Amino acid sequence: MNKMVWSDYLDILIVAFLIYKLLPLIRTPHVMRIARTVLGLVLMAWLTSVMKLHTLSWILNQILAVGVIVFVILYQPELRRMLDHIGSVKLGSIFSPNKPAQTMDNMILQTVMACEILSREKVGALIVFAREQHLDEFYKTGTIIDGQVSEQLLRNIFFPKASLHDGAVIIRDGRVAAAGCVLPLSNSHLLSADLGTRHRAGVGMSENSDAVVVIVSEETGTISVAVGGMLKRHLAPQTLEKLLRRELCPEAEAEGSRRILQKLTKKKEAEGNEKK
Questions:
Q1: Which residue, among 162, 132, 146, has the nearest Cα to 25 in the 3D structure?
Q2: What is the distance between the alpha carbons of residues 127 and 109, in angstroms, rounded to a whole number?
Q3: Do residues 214 and 223 lie in contact, with contact meaning Cβ atoms separated by under 8 Å?
Q4: Pairing mode, if any, of strands 175-181 and 143-148?
Q5: pTM for the predicted model, two decimal places
Q6: Which of 34, 96, 108, 110 has the greatest count of CB atoms below 10 A from its CB?
C-alpha cells in the first residue's frame, strides 16, 4: 500500500473545495432529479451484482451501456439548463467573498418596503433575487436597468401603466439588473388552481434555478415567496424580511442568532450571580 504524500492531501482539499463551491450552482429540483436517477441506477446495478441476481444485473448493465444516449434524450431540457447555469457563472464569483452586509441589508429593506406598499395598493410584482446562478438566459429577455435597489424604482417598474410592469425584475449582485424579463412557467400539479401566471412564473423560476422569487398578487395583494419549487404564501412584511435575510444572507443570519444566544446566556449568568 502506497503511503500518501503532501500532493495527495492537496489534491483532496482542492477537489473538496471545488465540490463545496460548485454544488450550490447546480442544486435545483431538475438537476437533483437527474442526480437521483443516476444514483439509483448505479446503486441497483451494484446491489444486483453483490446479491448475484444475474438476470437483473445483465438487464441493468445493458441499460447502463446505452444509458448515456437515453439519458441525454430524456433529460435534454434539464441538461441544457444545467450547462447554461454552469456556463453563466463567472470564475471569480466562486472564489470572491459575499456582498457586504450593509449592501444586502439595504437591498432587503428597500424590497420589503416596496412590497408592503404594492401589496396594500394591490399592484402585482415579480422580483427575482439571483444567487450563485446569474440567470443570463432570463436576464437577456428583459430591459437592462443596472440601478440601485430602491423602493421608488421597484414601485415605478411595477406601476400598472408602466411598459415593464408585466415582466419580472431580476436583482443580482445587489443591483436591479433588468426588468420586464420573461420567466418559465411551472407545470407542477401541486400548485393551487387559483394561482395565476405570475405565481406560476415565480415557482417555475425557482424550479429552474437557485433564485429566490418574491411575488405580489394583483388580485389579493398577498405576498408570496418561491424557493426551490416551493411556494410560501400570505406572508406579512416582517416575515418576508426574515425569510429574505435567511435565504440571501445565511451567514449574517447565523451570526445574528449566535449574538442573541450569547446575550441570553450572559443575562442568565448575571441573574444567577445576583441570586447567589
A1: 132
A2: 14
A3: yes
A4: antiparallel
A5: 0.66
A6: 108
DSSP assignment, residue 210? Answer: S
d(C-alpha 135, C-alpha 167), whole Å: 15
In which residue are the cell numbers 446491489 written?
47
pLDDT tens by residue, 224-236: 999 988 999 999 9
Between helix 67-74 and helix 76-88 the angle, nearest 10°, is: 80
For residue 194, give the C-alpha cell: 387559483
pLDDT in tens, 180-212: 999 999 988 888 888 999 999 999 999 888 899
Cα 156 from Cα 135, distance rounded (Å): 23
Question: What helix, strand, coil percent values describe the chain, rounded to 5?
Answer: 60, 15, 30
Reading the block at residue 104, the C-alpha cell is 444586502
Q: For residue 219, give the nearest of 121, 90, 101 by alpha carbon.
A: 121
Grid-cell match 446479491, residue found:
51
Cα–Cα dist 216/125, whole Å: 5
Half-sphere exposure of 223 (CA within 13 A, CB side): 22
The residue written with cell numbers 420589503 in the block is: 112
Collapse the DSSP code of 21 into the 3-class scheme (helix H, G, I; strand E, B; otherwise coil) and give the result. helix
Query: In one letter, which amino acid is 205?
Result: M
Question: Order of strands across the sheet with 168-172?
Answer: 143-148, 175-181, 168-172, 125-129, 212-216, 223-227, 230-232
